[in-house]
Amino acid sequence: MYSNRDFNRWRRHPWHGLHARADDAAEDIVNVYIEMTPDDVVKYELDKASGFLMVDRPQRTTSSPPALYGFIPRTFCAEEVAKRCPDADEADGDPLDICVFSERHITRADIILKARVVGGIQMIDGGEADDKIVAVLEGDNIWGDVQDITDLPSIKAERLQHYFSTYKMIPGKEIDIKVDFVYGREEALKVIAAAEKDYWNHYGHLHEAAKQQ
Description:
4 helices, alpha+beta, five-stranded mixed barrel, Inorganic Pyrophosphatase
């Protein structure tokens, strides 16, 4: 459990302390906290309690993410997200993942950027909904005008599907991961809205407590 003391750190918590989008931002422009870059073959992940980036595990294979990989602040995948994935038993209980394409090579993680949502991939990992939102860097010189995932070359989504279907593979062992369904901007925005609702249902009390201090 988080205490008020945990919530009010000097360093703003990337998950709880940032907003999903600026107050004046369009619906499809979101803030993204980046955990991994396309160069990473070590799985980095946010430590939920401290807000610092930690090493989760070294990847067993040579796979590296084909896009910047992180999450949207103040989102959580629980009951509402699971409702949008009929084949899943539940959601994975993490912030909503997002992959961001950029023409320029961004080489470091633990940064924040703005991205335009264009679609997503419905991933089911061991019976849990684990959606991957797909976006492009806002203002990108190549991808900045993309509005929907259908505007991207199809190989972009295919590479994401391949990465997420194989990045947990261990020789000789089967994995239960499905990444068959790719959806567009409209469904992606509905998934984000569901994840925002899940966040407030589970963690809204943190913000109410902070207001009272």
